[in-house]
Task: structure prediction
Amino acid sequence: MKAKVVLAGALLSLMIVSCEKKEEKAQGTPKGETKEAVVKKEERQAEVDKGREKGQEFKRSGAYALADSKGCFACHDVQKKKVGPAYVEVAKKYAGKENAVEELVRSITKGSMGKWGSIPMTPQPVTREEAEKLAKWILSLR
Ligand code: HEC
Result:
């Protein structure tokens, strides 16, 4: 008999908990947030997730390791602006441009100034072949 009472009590509290959860869901949005804000947030999160996936993907590529070993990430990030522009932004800017690879190879080996802001990039210690590999990789990051 006692066991039954305990069991009934446990069941009751379980039901209460699940009801409360449902209520939260029914309300939908956390306090102070409009539906649009939540949708925007979800979209942003989806973008971030996509970026993260891309980041993982490119970490496995040889060009990422090369960029890493040449110290490019001291000033660049794939997704975020650091001292220099984010590589995804570079890829976007040069999307569809005919001589994009050439132009980036030149920037990497000879340096770049005034294209992204007031800080210049000095010539990087890479060979032409390495610069080409890096440029192609960066351009693929869109
Ligand atoms: C000391 C900081 C620093 C390092 C290290 C660095 N960069 Fe940069 N990079 C910059 C800055 C600052 C800019 C923006 C220059 C400008 O405004 O023209 C830039 C611009 C670029 C651009 C865009 C150039 C263009 O023509 O639009 C590419 C591509 C690039 N860097 C690739 C690299 C690669 C690859 C490496 C490694 C081999 C590297 N960077 C290392 C600071 C750096």
Notes: Residues 67, 70-72, 74-76, 83-85, 90, 103-104, 107-108, 112-117, 119-121, 124, 126, 134, 138 surround heme C (CB under 6 Å). The chain has a mean pLDDT of 83.
